[in-house]
Known about the structure:
Blueprint lengths: L3 H17 L3 E6 L16 E5 L4 H16 L2 E8 L2 E8 L2 E10 L9
Parallel strand pairs: 2-5
Antiparallel strand pairs: 1-2, 3-4, 4-5
Amino acid sequence: MFTVEYRSQVRDALIEKARTDPLIESAAAVGGSAEGDGDRWSDLDLTFGVAGSARDEVLADWTADMRLRFDAVTLFDLPVLSSIYRVFLLPGFIAGGPFLHTYDRLRRPGA
């Protein structure tokens, strides 16, 4: 059964994984999660900038971790240029993301 608390736990775990993954060079919360936890219908929209050509390696690692830790199933992938948006179905809700970019695709304004 889905709860907002469970979604927050998954989000926090993914953010912590990004902090410790040396191939993740930048991160952003987008969508409803950009301003907190969103409402009860919000999914997880997390975007990560990936070092160099490591996108596929990171995607494979994160997918395996999502399956192991959260019993997630890949719903679909949406490739856009050098980026890929993988959507997972978790018990009780859909988690949008991670959206992985090669590093040159996600930069802060003015950088």
